Amino acid sequence: MTNPTRPNSGRIVYLLRAGLIAGVVVAAAAFPLVAIGGLTAKAGANLVEKTPADLLASAPAQTSYVYAADGTTLITTFYEEHRRYVPLAQMSPYIQQAIVASEDSRFYEHNGVDPKGVVRAFVANQQAGGVSQGASTLTMQYVRMALRDSAKDPFEVQQATEQTPLRKLREMRLALDLEKETSKAQILERYLNSAYFGHRAYGIYSASEIFFSKLPKDLSPVEAATLAGLVKAPTAYDPASSDRKAATDRRNYVLDRMQAMAYLSPQATATAKAEPIQLRLSSPPNDCMSVPEERNSWGFFCDYLKTWWSIQPAFGANPLERLDKLRRGGYTIVTSLDPKIHDAAEQRVLTEESAGSPFAHGLVAVEPGTGYVRSMAVNRVYSLDQSENGAHSDPSRRGQMKGNYPNTVVPLLGGGGLPGYQAGSTFKMFTMVAALDAGLGLGTAFDSPHRIVSIYPDGSGGPTDCGGFWCPSNASGAMSGRQTMWSGFGKSVNTYFVWLEQQVGAENVVRLAERLGLQWRTDIDKRQASPSQANKWGSFTLGVSDVTPLEMANAYATIAAEGRFCEALPVVSITGPDGTPATYRSGSGMDLEIAQPRCNQEIDPDAARAATDAARCPTGDTPARGSCGGWSTADRVRGIVGRPVAGKTGTTDSDRAAWFVGYTPELAVASFLSDPDSPMNPVGSGQANKPIDAVAGFLKDALKDQPVRQFNPPSDRISA
Predict the structure, then answer these.
(1) At how many degrees (to 10) do helices 245-260 and 93-103 cross?
(2) What is the spatial distance between Cα 226 and Cα 248, in angstroms, rounded to a whole number?
(3) Preceding amide of 406 cis, omega within 30
(4) Residue 459: pLDDT above 90?
(5) Where in this chain does the record put each Glycosyl transferase family domain (predicted)?
(6) What pLDDT does residue 210 have?
(7) Span between the terminal Cα atoms of the chain, in Å
(8) What's 50's DSSP letter?
(9) Residue 381: which H helix or E strand, with range?
């Protein structure tokens, strides 16, 4: 499309800048011919706060797109105004022609303000005795939209859109200045990306998608004319309404204008006008409730992504600002969610048996060495509708509210405000790693009795019949005898690990757990973890603290990565509308990509390798160095997974929760079973195998056809 040479309108520009004909221009453009006293004086003081540079810098809100790890599978979008910016070269020439023909036929002839249009509007409005016609050029309309989009508060929005002579004069002056700074093509491109077409479609990309399910470059003359006709009055000319006569009449008007400007031949115009409006309506998803119905469980991961986003300082000063940036920033977000891995997780927790159970059965998978969260699956439906949910399992709340099953949006797997669940003996990993990191060897031995009188006072949660001290015992008499870290971990010998905790110091174990990402969310956990109390927290090694599956999977991923801790991360890339990666300023003053793994070496690599060697014992695997002592708590796992695997079982007092956390070099997985509505409600001893089987089956399926990787053995020094 070529731009005809624009005639010199210097006389109009001079008079307008001088304010000598301001009242006449504005009145003619938008108002009856009346006296507008004092307008020129006010204009001089109020119409210079924005510049063309400000308008060009202002960016309208754009939709953020969220994809799975493959970069193509759409999870959902976030927007306040559904818009995606596209360059003019990616728009059909018909939509460019249709907009010019319908909104500003002299667009290529004027310098931002159309003198002929002013006169025409003046005559029409005087004859009508009111506003029957305006004189806003495309440039002036774009100025109005840019002022609105760059507004910092509601008052500036009002200033940009109110029907006053002062606003019209402001638009004219800025339009004249803008056309001196930029080309007609750039103005038309920005206009088409800013205009509202109705049906929550902002900009031509969204309009093409919502009304015709196609890209702007593929619009036909009929479709382009239909969309161009909407700009003047999106509701009145909405073709999706029950009565399409108004939309058809408006479309035909635009087609006639296109013919008058020689964009269409008379024959092409007649053919186009004879066609009925044929829509292919689509409704773009918005937020986590709009994940694909067949992928409902992605909603829990999506919710975790939002929570993570809301705490990233790079996106704003507070959670509200950050989420506003998500809805308006036009980001392309490729998440860490792997659809194939997630399918394998769903198969293990979304069973027919578990669908209507008050017990939540969940699984979280994290990639060692990156922190990428590859799956978050739970036996729940992501939905706000709880009308058909089961009864609440807490007797004190039953009858007052529904339970959170099968429908819920509660973050049961981590990443939200839920404290989590006690994880039992899975915490023995923290005691073992703290001991290894402190220089003790895997062969550190202790004659473990069935019951031990601990140095810890009974205030830490144990029985009170041991002279005021905590007296933990083993689950079975078969666990008694001389144990090392290999056998003590494989059999889950409580008395061995209480003794080991005493050797290294309970506070050191608590601090080690913090280094691996654990947080304290309940008042009692915060108090027990405090500097004044942590060294008395003997029961910590038996998993009495609340923790989330996400935290446990990520903590064990650190061991799998030979001591390299990485923050749990739900994204692998985030790019802005211009295609550049989103960054944040690190504590050292460096600009880093937000999606870059945030890792540091928290544990001596040899200590982590030693912990893994002992952690092979519970799964029935064979350690590289020592002996597992003849039996273990989950010895079938190695046979199911079919490759080197480590992990730990965990149950709590009275079987209120059951856990298994397992890992290979490729993936770390935490699975749990508990009642989130009533944590005191026991799952029962018969349920303890469910998390074990879920992790084993998941690892088998998720790693199918992948090369078998071996764990690196620990050194002779730490194996002693």
Answers:
(1) 100
(2) 8
(3) yes
(4) no
(5) 74-259
(6) 97
(7) 80
(8) -
(9) strand 381-382
